[in-house]
Amino acid sequence: MLKKDIIRLCMLHLLTVRDRYGYEMLSLLHGIFADTQESAIYALLRELCREKYTESYVGETSGGPARKYYRITESGREEYKRLMEIWRGLKESLEKLGI
Predict the structure, then answer these.
(1) What structural domains and CATH numbers belong to the chain?
(2) Is residue 7 within 8 Å of residue 33, measured between CB atoms?
């Protein structure tokens, strides 16, 4: 599992908790993956939409500009489960090596 897949897993995980807007996700992820460019995170978010794992909508705001929110789709939940299985297998294998 590469860094890109781990970030995808994290994005999908965040969206299983609740719908989020792009900058909110960027802030959370950039705090953990500080060496990843913001544009790469946004590109992954757009990719998840193209693949139908997420969908976007314009949310209500109070006084500010409209925000684009993202929510996970049913196929996104399946992808999340698939990536979690890969992650758990990788983690288990590394633990067997003492890492």
Answers:
(1) 3-96 (1.10.10.10)
(2) yes
The token pair that represents 46 in the structure block: 């757009």
pTM of the model: 0.89
73 — alpha (psi -120 to 50), left (phi > 0) or beta?
Answer: beta
**What does the pLDDT profile of the chain (99 residues) look like in tens digits?**
588 899 999 999 999 999 999 899 999 998 899 998 889 989 999 999 999 999 999 987 667 788 899 999 999 999 999 999 999 999 999 999 999
Q: Please count the other Cβ atoms lying within 10 Å of the Cβ belonging to residue 41.
A: 20
15 neighbors 71 (Cβ within 8 angstroms): yes
